[in-house]
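# step 3/5: fold
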Amino acid sequence: MAYDQVMIDEDGEEYPFSSSIDEDGYLYRVSVVFDDRDGEWIILNLGSHIEFDDDGSWLDFNIAPEDMFPSKDKLQDVEILEFMHHCSCNMENAKTYTKDEMMVLYQKYKQITGNHS
């Protein structure tokens, strides 16, 4: 993934990221190292997860940014970092899915929505 922006937290750590904002909401893709694993943190207005590079698994946080930042069309860097910190400190509701589990869920999603592409 090509990242065209960089966030810097209060400790000076850099987070390359890209963003996309449209009428459906926002999407941030943040390059991270989480528990010594490289991945991409996906932040949508309705949810958030990390896709890990090593095995394709997902860590789903079950926390929606819009709950922390209601009625926001986009997030500022400080809000993205605050949300990431909040998720990292509240792992009790997080769930890990293997790559195979995600494929099964994706196939079910396609059946439900009629999206067969």
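# step 4/5: annotate
The helical segments are 65-68, 77-89, 99-113.
# step 5/5: archive (pending)
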